[in-house]
TrEMBL record:
Keywords: Cell membrane, Membrane, Peptide transport, Protein transport, Transmembrane, Transmembrane helix, Transport. The keyword Nuclease does not apply. One of its GO terms (molecular function) is peptide transmembrane transporter activity. It is found in: Cell membrane. PANTHER family: PROTON-DEPENDENT OLIGOPEPTIDE FAMILY TRANSPORT PROTEIN (PTHR23517:SF15), RESISTANCE PROTEIN MDTM, PUTATIVE-RELATED-RELATED (PTHR23517). Its main location: membrane. This is Proton-dependent oligopeptide transporter, POT family. The lineage of its organism: Bacteria, Pseudomonadati, Bacteroidota, Sphingobacteriia, Sphingobacteriales. The keyword Methyltransferase does not apply. The chain crosses the membrane at residues 45-63, 75-93, 102-119, 125-141, 162-186, 192-211, 251-268, 294-315, 327-345, 365-382, 394-413, 425-448, 460-480, 492-515.
């Protein structure tokens, strides 16, 4: 669907004073949010990729030498609070600052957090201060940028799900590059360099968003700002005429989807916890000879091609907005020049090594790589081929994340009960991340879209905050579950540990499929 025959979308943008130029069939403003979120996720996932492995790495190698249980508990508290604070940040934006100012304040606080973590060698206090600032900054940033994406599209637009999927590609492009480069530099050069690098790109994300604010028209301005006619006001009037039982039913569906998401992310977020431990202690990561050479070429491709893809997206955006927003394009272009330099340096450094040791954090990039390569296919699937209801998409997501853990359980069968180390093939982690990614594409961007479509507009920030609260609960449970990996492995086996994680999402998926018809009726026409 192109701009010419999508007049509803164009009219929707015009009513809010949003730039109507399109990039790849979607509003140019979507891609400003794309790059803002991309660099924020670079910073978050770049640091997260290092967190667990840094804590459990021996003191002689620059880590803190924590045991797995303690590291997982800190991971649980950090990731849980990171996703809890958006509830407060959403309310602050709805009532006081508006979305734009909240995003800018959040980005600044997170930049300072990364700067603090870069001084972890000076004193552990800086490390903990950095974690606190990251938690607070994310609370202001995360729910409000998602809310702005939703307001770019009418609720009836068939492009809304596709728009969120494209936005999700931006999320994962940043996550990919952050884990790839921060993880590599942190593990192979110095932990503090990895932590500090994450903050550099958070700064660039803040700058490019700051200079592009006018592209959003009235979207994201402070509450009470007078503009006429505002689409925000139009939506509130619309909602006043919506029967209370319809609003209630839709909110019940949102609640059901949020609860289902907890079971998905409980499994999915093992990536930074128990799956990181599995990668460090139980996976064959030292490669030589032909295997090492093959990995070097694969790693080089994984480094260069995603950078090429997002560079192309930046080029497409720049052709549409450079004349009006040159500083936004220039800031992003500078950040991309740095990324290209670091990527090429990394590839050259690896090819100069005789023996390849795959970093622990490398495996986490697979999720984001698969997202970047598969997101457009899923977007086209929902838009043109098959577009089932939200609950059905969620059920598929839950089943697929479980399949990933079944693969890990099967691959772990050779590990003796209670073993502290092993050398399992990398293929099982690769398969797990592939299935987890396909599951994520069925659930996470769809979830964001449904929260936007089913929620009353005046509470949009709050409800996005609640969506991330569900993620907070899931992250906390995921980390605490991961802290039992040694105990369960010693008493039973690694296979049993992974099968336990697989079982819960499957049970919830079955319930969603059974109640799909009822949930569809309760959405009252929202598909």
């Amino acid at each position: 669907m192109n701009q010419e025959n999508d007049q509803d979308l164009v009219q929707h943008l015009e009513k809010q004073g949003v730039e109507t130029k399109m990039v790849m069939g979607h509003p140019a403003s979507l891609f400003v949010l794309f790059f803002t979120e991309m660099w924020e996720r670079f910073s978050y996932y770049g640091m997260r990729a290092l967190l667990t492995v840094f804590l459990i790495t021996e003191i002689a190698k620059g880590g803190w030498g924590w045991n797995n249980s303690d590291a997982m508990q800190l991971y649980a508290w950090y990731t849980g609070l990171v996703y809890l604070t958006p509830l407060i940040g959403g309310m602050i934006a709805d009532k006081l600052t508006g979305y734009r100012k909240a995003i800018l304040w959040g980005a600044l606080i997170m930049t300072l957090g990364h700067a603090s973590m870069a001084f972890e060698q000076t004193s552990p206090t800086f490390f903990y201060i950095g974690l606190v600032l990251m938690i607070l900054g994310n609370g202001m940033f995360k729910p409000n940028i998602s809310s702005m994406v939703g307001q770019l599209y009418p609720d009836t637009s068939k492009k809304k799900d596709a728009g969120y999927t494209i936005f999700y590609m931006g999320i994962n492009s940043g996550a990919f590059l952050g884990m790839l480069l921060c993880g590599y530099i942190g593990e192979k050069v110095g932990w503090h360099y990895g932590f500090g690098l994450a903050g550099v790109f958070m700064f660039f994300g803040m700058v490019q968003f700051y200079f592009a604010q006018k592209i959003f028209g009235v979207i994201g301005e402070e509450p009470g700002t007078k503009h006429a006619p505002s689409e925000h006001v139009h939506n509130l009037v619309e909602e006043d005429q919506t029967p209370k039982n319809v609003v209630r039913d839709r909110l019940v569906v949102v609640a059901v989807l949020m609860i289902a998401s907890i079971f998905f992310f409980f499994a999915f977020e093992q990536a930074g916890g128990s799956m990181t431990i599995f990668a460090k202690d139980y996976t064959q990561r030292v490669l030589s000879g032909e295997a090492g050479t093959i990995f070097k070429w694969v790693d080089a491709a994984l480094t260069i091609f995603p950078i090429l893809i997002v560079t192309y997206v930046l080029f497409q955006l720049s052709t549409q907005i450079y004349s009006k927003y040159p500083m936004t394009v220039i800031a992003t272009a500078i950040s991309f020049a740095i990324i290209w330099g670091l990527g090429l340096w990394k590839v050259n450094r690896e090819f100069s090594q005789d023996v390849t040791e795959v970093t622990v954090s490398w495996f986490q990039i697979l999720n984001s790589f698969f997202i970047v390569t598969l997101a457009s296919s899923f977007s086209k699937l929902w838009e043109k081929v098959w577009n089932p209801s939200g609950p059905v998409k969620f059920a598929f997501g839950l089943i697929l994340v479980a399949v990933g853990f079944v693969a890990l359980a099967y691959g772990s069968m050779s590990i003796p009960q209670g073993a502290k180390t092993a050398s399992v093939s990398m293929i099982w982690l690769i398969l797990a991340y592939f299935f987890h990614t396909t599951g994520e594409l069925c659930l996470s961007p769809v979830g964001l879209s449904y929260v936007s479509k089913l929620s009353p507009k005046k509470f949009a920030g709050l409800l996005f905050g609640l969506w991330f609260t569900a993620s907070a609960i899931a992250n906390f449970i995921a980390g605490m579950t991961g802290s039992y990996i040694d105990m369960i492995t010693e008493k039973y086996s690694m296979t049993v540990f992974f099968l336990i994680i697989a079982a819960l999402p499957v049970a919830v998926a079955i319930l969603l499929l059974l109640f799909n018809g009822k949930l569809k009726k309760m959405m009252h026409g929202i598909n």
